């Protein structure tokens, strides 16, 4: 394939794009001649493109090496990395264990060089936020309003009805039933027209088209008109929707069968109709939740009258509760025209928190349904416990329309609400106030819980119900004065005792985060009981984590050594140069890939910068020893360099030795890797080398970043040396292209003149021949 390079001089900027036509008079192949005459310039263009491509590949080769160095630095040489082997804290004794009979009360994390000298002799008390839980809030009776089944209910008149339309002529005439979907919107005239036309499109008409493709409803001057788009015969002949759309005068849609009714309605349409409540409630549901369980009760008609009665409602609801949550758990009672609901104990036995058969811990709540809840005097959220949506006025017995101001004071902070605001609004105001408390409603217990937002003894709760009817109604009639408490522990530092107090149960003890969860070590008089065993701590490095990181680091470092030495030691095959566009056109994709892979080899052969990098990496251990570390110590922890010259200074790791060193002498491992106040560690020396070649921060970048740029330092992509070289080479290429264009234009002009002269000569020759033949 080496012969391809030999053809490159004539393979760039061909003349196939030359304008005009040549050789019409002379018979010459103008384009081929011009191509041959511009061979020199085109050859220079081809070679310039190859030089540019080679330099781009060389830039990529530099970047591939620098990216590996940067990646290594980010993983192992950055203080912010979780695997930072250059940081002494990475080797800290972070596996800390509490020991002793009372260690079950101690949880510890973090690291400290003093862990072995710290002991917790006792925990006098735990930190507690100030917290107060009220008594049971006065339960509300869950009941309906007075139900009048004779009242009229406005209901949707169109949803689920049908409209009969006769369409077609002769044998093709047919009556179509158009169903008005229950899920559509008929609430306004515009929505009604939209839904009617959508319903027409749901019915298949003649010739596999929908009725909506033949006809449509329009609203003009408040009345409906059905128009046929193509002049075919159409008529409205019945259906339960006809009357409410303004067609005919009978509710059932009869009397239209002859098809003579006008397609323009006689009156405005109506989307609602009135139905007596006792008829409308049949089949409707009232939904409840009982301790989170949904109960959907279907209202059934009286078996004798076929209409809903108060007794049939009561029986329907009771049956649903018994079936869904069990008999005896909810009692539905009818008194006059009002239904009431009560959670009860199934066996009727009393317990200490119940009154009679009432179950005060079960929550019964209205959640929805298809029945008109307002007609039953119910609302979503109504409950046998407190409904937070209840207005303050209603809660205090003043009525929902009450707009009076009500206030309560907590921790000397007064919160004011209007009577038409809800209990939920009040809770929100309290929680966002300067009272520094959080109020929560415990629905199951039907109580309020008040908790200070300040930790420990700083927190307090102070409420005087005598100053506010609202406070008394919500939080009870007992005066509240609660304070929190701090945690107190006794700690020894090398035998020296000290009592420490904090507002939380977590203590920072010289880098250890110690959380206490129980008391010990003190007697009934709150004196330290020294007969009880203290809790002590043992600390060691996280051997598994450190070993894994060092192993990964060695693999990454050795792979870089292998990559660098391969690049600098691979000789280029001079018979492979970058392909020109024309050469690529003659090759398959796989052939191009194989060629370019071979052409990229050896671009950094004997490159001085990469050679220097390889040398620096090979001598890292020597530099480490020079800075004060002992090769013997490195060998002791399992770190050596390969004695095989072909490995070019690869690190050899003895995992068993390293693991043993981490267990027996973790400080030595830390010193050899991270260094100390007097010596550089191995990782610092590696960092010095990698920064020299691939530093990406600061004004002064690494050698390879300065030379070829790096995506890790975006600005360098526009300021590196190769980028500037490529810009200059592109300028030369543009100049050559301009020269080629000038040459081509000149030759085209010359050939055009030649063609003109030959054409004139041919014309003269033809005229002379005619003269002599005459």
From TrEMBL:
Q: Name one GO cellular component term.
A: extracellular region
- Localization terms from the record: Secreted; Bacterial flagellum
* Lineage, opening ranks: Bacteria, Bacillati, Bacillota, Clostridia, Lachnospirales
Q: What does this protein do?
A: Required for morphogenesis and for the elongation of the flagellar filament by facilitating polymerization of the flagellin monomers at the tip of growing filament. Forms a capping structure, which prevents flagellin subunits (transported through the central channel of the flagellum) from leaking out without polymerization at the distal end.
Q: Where is the Flagellar hook-associated protein 2 N-terminal domain?
A: 26-129
Q: Where is the Flagellar hook-associated protein 2 C-terminal domain?
A: 484-763
Keyword presence, Coiled coil: yes
User: Is Aminoacyl-tRNA synthetase set as a keyword in this record?
Assistant: no
Tell me what organism the protein belongs to. Answer: Candidatus Scybalomonas excrementavium
Name this protein carries in UniProt: Flagellar hook-associated protein 2
């Amino acid at each position: 394939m080496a012969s391809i390079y030999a053809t490159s001089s004539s393979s760039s900027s061909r003349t196939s794009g030359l304008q005009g036509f040549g050789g019409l008079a002379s018979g010459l192949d103008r384009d081929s001649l011009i191509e041959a005459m511009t061979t020199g310039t085109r050859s220079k263009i081809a070679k310039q493109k190859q030089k540019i491509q080679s330099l781009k590949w060389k830039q990529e080769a530099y970047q591939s090496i620098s990216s590996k160095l940067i990646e290594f630095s980010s993983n192992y040489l950055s203080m912010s990395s979780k695997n930072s082997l250059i940081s002494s804290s990475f080797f800290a004794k972070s596996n800390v264990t509490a020991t002793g009979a009372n260690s079950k009360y101690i949880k510890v994390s973090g690291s400290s060089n003093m862990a072995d000298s710290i002991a917790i002799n006792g925990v006098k008390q735990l930190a507690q936020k100030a917290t107060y839980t009220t008594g049971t809030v006065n339960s509300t009776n869950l009941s309906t309003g007075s139900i009048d089944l004779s009242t009229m209910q406005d209901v949707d008149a169109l949803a689920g009805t049908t409209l009969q339309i006769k369409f077609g002529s002769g044998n093709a005439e047919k009556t179509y039933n158009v169903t008005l979907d229950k899920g559509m919107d008929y609430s306004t005239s515009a929505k009604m027209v939209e839904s009617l036309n959508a319903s027409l499109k749901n019915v298949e008409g003649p010739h596999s088209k929908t009725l909506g493709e033949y006809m449509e409803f329009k609203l003009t001057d408040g009345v409906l008109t059905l128009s046929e788009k193509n002049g075919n015969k159409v008529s409205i002949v019945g259906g339960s929707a006809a009357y409410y759309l303004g067609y005919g005068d009978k509710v059932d849609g009869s009397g239209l069968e002859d098809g003579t009714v006008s397609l323009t309605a006689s009156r405005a349409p109506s989307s609602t109709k009135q139905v007596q409540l006792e008829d409308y409630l049949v089949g409707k549901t009232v939904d409840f939740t009982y301790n989170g369980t949904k109960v959907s009760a279907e209202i059934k008609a009286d078996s004798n009258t076929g209409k809903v009665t108060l007794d049939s409602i009561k029986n329907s609801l009771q049956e649903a509760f018994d079936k869904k949550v069990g008999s005896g758990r909810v009692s539905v009672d009818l008194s006059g025209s009002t239904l009431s609901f009560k959670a009860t104990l199934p066996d009727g036995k009393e317990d200490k928190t119940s009154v009679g058969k009432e179950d005060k811990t079960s929550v019964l709540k209205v959640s929805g349904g298809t029945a008109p809840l307002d007609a039953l005097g119910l609302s979503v959220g109504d409950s046998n416990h407190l409904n937070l949506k209840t207005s303050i006025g209603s809660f205090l017995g003043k009525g929902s329309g009450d707009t009076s101001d009500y206030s309560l004071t907590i921790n000397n902070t007064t919160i004011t609400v209007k009577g038409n605001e809800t209990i939920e609004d009040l809770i929100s105001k309290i929680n966002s106030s300067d009272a520094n408390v959080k109020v929560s409603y415990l629905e199951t217990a039907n109580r309020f819980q008040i908790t200070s937002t300040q930790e420990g003894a700083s927190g307090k709760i102070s409420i005087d119900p005598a100053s506010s009817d609202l406070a008394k109604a919500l939080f009870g009639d007992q005066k509240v004065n609660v304070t929190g408490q701090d945690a107190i522990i006794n700690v020894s530092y090398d035998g020296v005792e000290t009592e420490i107090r904090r507002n939380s149960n977590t203590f920072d003890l010289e880098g250890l985060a110690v959380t206490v969860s129980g008391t010990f070590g003190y007697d009934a008089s709150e004196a330290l009981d020294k007969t009880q065993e203290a809790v002590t701590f043992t600390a060691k490095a996280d051997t598994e984590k450190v070993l894994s990181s060092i192993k990964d680091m060695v693999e990454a470092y050795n792979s870089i050594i292998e990559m660098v030495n391969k690049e600098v030691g691979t000789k280029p095959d001079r018979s492979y140069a970058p392909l020109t566009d024309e050469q690529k056109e003659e090759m398959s994709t796989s052939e191009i890939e194989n060629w370019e892979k071979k052409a990229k080899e050896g671009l950094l052969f004997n490159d001085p910068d990469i050679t220097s990098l390889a040398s620096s990496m090979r001598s890292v251990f020597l530099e480490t020893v020079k800075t004060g570390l002992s090769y013997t110590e490195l060998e002791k922890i399992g770190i050596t360099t390969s004695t095989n010259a072909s490995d070019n200074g690869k690190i050899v790791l003895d995992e068993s030795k390293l693991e043993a060193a981490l267990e027996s002498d973790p400080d030595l491992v830390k010193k050899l890797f991270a260094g100390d106040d007097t010596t550089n560690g191995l990782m610092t020396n590696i960092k010095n080398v990698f920064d020299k070649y691939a530093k990406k921060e600061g004004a002064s970048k690494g050698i390879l970043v300065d030379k070829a740029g790096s995506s890790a330092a975006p600005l360098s992509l526009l300021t590196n040396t190769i980028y500037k070289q490529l810009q200059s080479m592109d300028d030369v290429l543009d100049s050559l292209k301009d020269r080629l264009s000038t040459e081509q234009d000149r030759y085209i002009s010359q050939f055009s003149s030649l063609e003109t002269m030959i054409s004139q000569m041919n014309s003269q020759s033809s005229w002379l021949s005619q003269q002599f033949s005459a």
